[in-house]
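Q: Okay, next protein. This is NUDIX hydrolase from Glycomyces mayteni. I've checked the sequence twice, so it should be correct. Can you predict the 3D structure?
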Amino acid sequence: MWWLAALVTIAAVAGAYATWTVARVERLHRRARAAETALLTKLDDRAETVLRFVGNPGFEEVVALALSVVAVPADTQRQRELREYAENDLTRALRDLAADPVWTDDLESANRRVALARQIHTDFVRDAVASRSLPVAVMLRLHHRLPRPQYWDIDDPVK
């Protein structure tokens, strides 16, 4: 009769571990989606910060790039790629601007928020992708049920 108790205990431990793993994988995927939403919000905020300087001399190219960033949603894979290109162009154009006390504080603050959101998103995506390869996650085929989070390939604006 002791073997029946051992079998029930093993089944309960395996079930608890599988439940814990599934919850962890799903939680990491939710966090990666939330971090992506936060990153997009910070990128939009940065573009809006740039748009406050419409009409100032020397800002024509940067404002045009900011308008292109705001105009591109990130719903499909193609739109996402276009948004990445637009963000990278905007980041490079902002780096090329000479330091001007009129906009430096606002823009540096927006760039720091973008860099932090980018780092948080990258960390959550890395963890979510790693969790997909756990043995229980593979056995339960979670990688087919949950969409794979994707990295945002954008330049670090703080460099």
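A: Here is a summary of the prediction. The helical segments are 2-51, 60-71, 77-96, 104-131, 135-139, 142-145. The chain has a mean pLDDT of 85.
Q: Noted. On to the next one.
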